[in-house]
Amino acid sequence: MSSEIIVCDEAVSALDLTVQAQVIALLRELRERFDVALIFICHDLNLVRSFADTVLVMQSGKVVEQGPPAAIFEAPQHPYTQRLIAASPLADPVAQSDRRQARQALERLDHACAK
């Protein structure tokens, strides 16, 4: 393989979960076997968290935050990143409820700052 970078723009977004998992496994294999970098553009934050080595969060075409997945997802610094994470769904209903409350608190803060 002669590529050093592969751009994957929403490469798995329209796929069912089984096919998505197969494509992700293939991308991992390509990354490891050929030491190729992947630019993985994706709106599925759970997938980004499990797949990426480094996360860049963009708002209106500008990078607002970047770092390792653990840092971005466990302690987001930028308000836009905080809102994105708060809006992403979770399978655990208790965690989802906590996330909904956090999102509502951020929205109240946004409204208060706008006044």
Gross geometry: globular
Overall pLDDT: 87
Kindly name the structural category. Answer: alpha+beta
What is the strand arrangement across the widest sheet? 1-2
Rg, Å, rounded: 16 Å
Helices, by number, come to: 5
Biggest sheet features: 2 strands, parallel
Question: Unreliable stretches, pLDDT < 50, 5 or more residues?
Answer: none
What's the total number of strands?
4
Estimated share of beta-strand residues? 15-25%
What does this 3D model show about the protein?
The chain is an alpha+beta fold. The chain has a domain at 62-115. Helices cover 54% and strands 18% of the residues. It contains 5 helices and 4 strands; from the N terminus they run βαβαββααα. The strands form 2 sheets. Strands 1-2 form a two-stranded parallel ribbon. A two-stranded antiparallel sheet has the order 3-4. Strand 1 (5-9), helix 1 and strand 2 (37-41) form a beta-alpha-beta unit. The N and C termini lie far apart (55 Å). 6% of the residues are buried. The model has no long low-confidence stretch (mean pLDDT 87).
